[in-house]
């Protein structure tokens, strides 16, 4: 079972040293943090880090108790990076350990999201020495196909 948005918010506050057992968070603070979480995840989504996080169509439509369906490998990156984004609002200084952890976790997400761009061979490339000409009518690679591709929630690529 994945984290809810509320759990991400509470963990980010705990990372800042403002845990719920010490500080009572007001509904306004929780809503402000939820908006920061949604905008951070939308930014990551635009950068190609698609984790399945449910982005609201309107900031008022976001709910703290929504299950995020984010993989467990991304939890640390979300919590620590959200804590870094929230720290200036609350006058907190983020520790070096938190910054280091956030950077390493974010780099891991980037590495997981990186896929090489698929390329097709040009029509002018010979098939090679292993391809006997009597087996094929044409000694060159087949013409590249030009399908319309779209990734998960991504722009169309031609």
3D structure, described in words:
39% of the residues lie in helices and 3% in strands. With 158 residues, it is mainly α. It has a domain at 5-113: P22 tail accessory factor (Gp4) (Hypothetical protein yqbg), CATH 1.10.3230. The protein starts with a helix and ends with a strand.
List keywords for this structure.
single chain; 158 residues; mainly alpha; Hypothetical protein yqbg; two-stranded antiparallel sheet; 4 helices; elongated
Which fold name corresponds to the CATH topology of the domain at 5-113? Hypothetical protein yqbg
SS elements, strand count: 2
Major sheet summary line: 2 strands, antiparallel
**Unreliably modeled segments:** none
**CATH architecture call of the domain at 5-113:** Orthogonal Bundle
Q: How are strands sequenced across the largest beta sheet?
A: 1-2
**Which strand-content bin applies to the residues?**
under 5%
- What is the H/E order? HHHHEE
CATH class of the domain at 5-113: Mainly Alpha
Could you give me the name of the CATH homologous superfamily of the domain at 5-113? P22 tail accessory factor (Gp4)
State the helix count. Answer: 4
Percentage of helical residues? Answer: 25-40%
Secondary-structure blueprint of this entry?
Layout: H1 5-15, H2 27-46, H3 75-86, H4 96-113, E1 149-150, E2 156-157
Antiparallel strand pairs: 1-2
Helix pairs in contact: 1-2, 1-3, 2-3, 3-4
């Amino acid at each position: 079972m994945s984290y809810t948005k509320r759990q991400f918010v509470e963990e980010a506050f705990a990372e800042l040293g403002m845990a719920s057992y010490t500080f009572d968070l007001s509904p306004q603070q929780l809503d402000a943090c939820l908006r920061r979480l949604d905008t951070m995840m939308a930014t990551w989504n635009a950068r190609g880090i698609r984790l399945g996080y449910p982005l609201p169509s309107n900031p008022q439509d976001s709910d703290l108790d929504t299950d995020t369906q984010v993989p467990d490998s991304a939890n640390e990156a979300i919590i620590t990076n959200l804590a870094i984004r929230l720290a200036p609002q609350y006058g907190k200084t983020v520790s070096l350990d938190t910054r280091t952890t956030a950077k390493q976790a974010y780099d891991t997400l980037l590495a997981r999201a990186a896929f090489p761009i698929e390329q097709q061979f040009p029509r002018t490339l010979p098939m090679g020495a292993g391809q006997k000409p009597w087996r094929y009518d044409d000694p060159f690679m087949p013409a590249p196909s030009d399908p319309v591709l779209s990734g998960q929630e991504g722009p169309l690529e031609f």
